[in-house]
Structures are given as structure tokens and as C-alpha cells.
Design brief:
There is one protein chain. With 321 residues, the chain is of the alpha+beta class. It folds into three domains: 3-46 and 108-192 and 313-317, Trna Endonuclease, Chain: A, domain 1; 50-101, no CATH class; 196-302, no CATH class. The protein has ten helices and 14 strands. The strands form three sheets. The protein has a seven-stranded mixed β-sheet with strand order 1-2-3-6-7-8-14, sandwiched between helices. A five-stranded antiparallel β-sheet has the order 12-11-10-9-13. It is globular and about 75 Å long.
Length: 321
């Protein structure tokens, strides 16, 4: 992938902010700006198969296949076969015989597992990056839009239930953005770690209320927030927090969840906030373990139910390809 393509992906995610972006190596780019800490960005492309990548990247490969059947790789014979098809003209009923390349549409579960494999690969390379960056984000470009969705749950749920979900939750990258498409909107950038973090708050809040109803315990705001803090330390060890004017905020990746004094919830993008203005949650939670019954109820619920907020993504739209 060339630097121009990488830069377009970066602009898609961070384009609404005045950043100074410089090409780099390990990671690909350095970002700086007034009043923010420098951070790095690593960019990678994702394809469902290597054959899909060749079909898109090799100029006129599709035309070449249809005209001459000249496959560039032995795997392409089975992955992107040329078939006889019939094109039906709706207006006239005319049937036109053609040759075409038929591609099956993978399920979200199938394609997400492959995307997670890509993320695992990139996680393994994180230690080789420049240590001067306090944070590095990863952008995964779904070049062929095979992870496109109508509701964001279609993308997030297979990750949540995957055995490899921990690779996202505990990734060394500050945030992992997937650029794909949302039907009726166009391209969007989805922060995976932030969304899974928010899903965890929804899961815990639901179970905590059930736990309090069952035990008839002291259901106070303070007890709830302290219990949530213990839970987040276990699930998201790098969680940051801040208490300001009796508003409690927790942050993972570039996403913050705030519980306000008047008991409302606010969600914010914290990409450009200095992490030094926040505190690590782990050292300040007196006891990390939840009551055994509550922990068991959370684990049980996680195996059967998923919930998420529906608009935690960056609208990019139908920009020029």
C-alpha cells in the first residue's frame, strides 16, 4: 500500500482536526498538533482473501480473466472463477449471455474472524515501533467493504463473542479503527476498542441491577460506580478515569464514558485529550475482585447477550475513491 492510500485513510478518520501529519516508519505516520500529545498511526488494508486483493490491485485483472482466463495465481482459479451468466434487462425482458466473476458474500462472522487475524498479526509487531510515541492507533481499511453493515451490531457482535475478542480489548494499540461502509450513509470509521468498552458498561449495568434486585443490597450510585470500576480494571486493564464536579468518567482507547451528577450518561471522543490529565484506574481501585455472585452473573450474561450503542462511529461519507 502506498503512502497516498495510507494518507487518505488517515484523513478519513482524523480529517476534521488540524493535525500535522508526517510520514514515518514503524509506525507509518506521526501526528502532532497544538495542545495534544504526539501519537503514531499504523495503517493496513484488509481483504477477505488474497485473490480479492489481486483482483482489486492488479490493473485490469478482471478484464484479463474474462477475456483470456489468464490467472495470475493458482488460488485464483477456485477463489475467483469466471462463469457464464445471463443478464436480464428488466425493461425489455431481453436476456444477454455474459461472462462474469461471481463472488460469494461472506457472513459477518466469517469475515470478522479474518479481520481479527489481521489485528493479531499487527499486535505482534507493536513492540517494534518507535518507543517515543505515548500512543499508537491502528487503522484497518476494509478495502472491498466486505464488513459493511446496516446496524453496527452486525460488525461488533461477532467480535464480542469471538474467542479472539481479547486481542482487541487488550491490544497494545490505543484504538483500532475499521474503515468500512454503513448502508445508507457510506464510509465510516468504527473504533473497535471504544465500542467494546461501551458494550461492557451496558452489560455490567444491566447485570448489576439484576444483582441488586436479587440480593437487595445498597443500590446507591457510589456503590454502582465503584463496582463498575472494579469490573473495568479486570476487563480493560489500561482504563483511565477522572472525577470532576462529581461526574465520573472512564476512558478506554479514544472513547470516554461519563456518568454525570444528575445520572445521565455522556459518550465522548477523546482522541485529542492528553492522557496525562487522567489517572490509571488500576492502582486506585482498592479491591479488584467483585462479589463472586456478581462476577458469575456477568460472565453468564456475556455468553448469551450483546448490547451496544448504535452510533459510535465516524461518518466519512461517499468520498472520492
Amino acid at each position: 500500500m502506498n503512502k497516498m492510500t495510507e494518507r487518505k485513510m488517515i484523513d478519513a478518520v482524523y480529517g476534521n482536526h488540524s493535525l500535522r501529519i508526517e510520514g514515518s516508519e514503524r509506525p507509518d505516520f506521526k501526528c502532532s498538533g497544538d495542545g495534544i500529545e504526539d501519537f503514531g498511526i499504523e495503517v493496513t488494508e484488509f481483504f477477505n482473501t488474497e485473490s480479492d486483493a489481486r483482483l482489486l490491485k492488479i490493473p485490469k485483472y478482471a478484464v484479463e480473466l474474462i477475456k483470456s482466463g489468464n490467472y495470475r495465481h493458482k488460488d485464483d482459479i477456485d477463489e475467483i472463477p469466471v462463469k457464464d451468466v445471463v443478464y436480464h434487462v428488466a425493461a425489455t425482458g431481453q436476456k444477454i449471455p455474459l461472462k462474469g466473476i461471481l463472488r460469494p458474500v461472506p457472513t459477518h462472522s466469517e469475515v470478522v474472524q479474518k479481520c481479527l487475524a489481521k489485528i493479531i498479526e499487527k499486535n505482534g509487531k507493536h513492540t517494534k515501533y518507535n518507543k517515543s510515541f505515548p500512543a499508537i492507533d491502528l487503522i484497518v481499511g476494509d478495502t472491498d467493504s466486505v464488513m459493511r453493515f446496516s446496524a453496527i451490531q452486525e460488525l461488533l457482535e461477532p467480535i464480542f463473542f469471538s474467542p479472539n475478542a481479547e486481542e482487541v480489548i487488550k491490544s497494545p494499540y490505543r484504538e483500532i479503527y475499521v474503515i468500512t461502509r454503513k448502508n445508507e450513509i457510506g464510509k465510516v470509521g468504527v473504533p473497535l476498542r471504544g465500542n467494546l468498552f461501551l458494550s461492557e458498561t451496558l452489560l455490567f449495568t444491566k447485570v448489576y441491577q439484576e444483582y441488586q434486585d436479587h440480593t437487595r443490597g445498597a443500590n446507591t450510585v457510589g456503590e454502582y460506580l465503584q463496582s463498575l470500576a472494579k469490573h473495568l480494571v479486570d476487563r480493560f486493564p489500561m482504563t483511565l478515569y477522572r472525577i470532576e464536579n462529581d461526574d465520573w468518567s472512564f476512558m478506554a482507547g479514544t472513547t470516554a464514558w461519563k456518568f454525570t451528577y444528575d445520572q445521565n450518561i455522556a459518550i465522548s471522543d477523546m482522541t485529542y485529550v492528553k492522557a496525562t490529565e487522567w489517572s490509571r484506574l488500576a492502582p486506585d481501585v482498592e479491591e479488584h475482585e467483585l462479589p463472586l455472585l456478581l462476577a458469575q452473573m456477568v460472565d453468564k450474561e456475556r455468553k448469551k447477550a450483546f448490547a451496544c450503542y448504535d452510533k459510535v462511529y465516524i461518518p466519512i461519507g461517499a468520498e472520492e475513491e
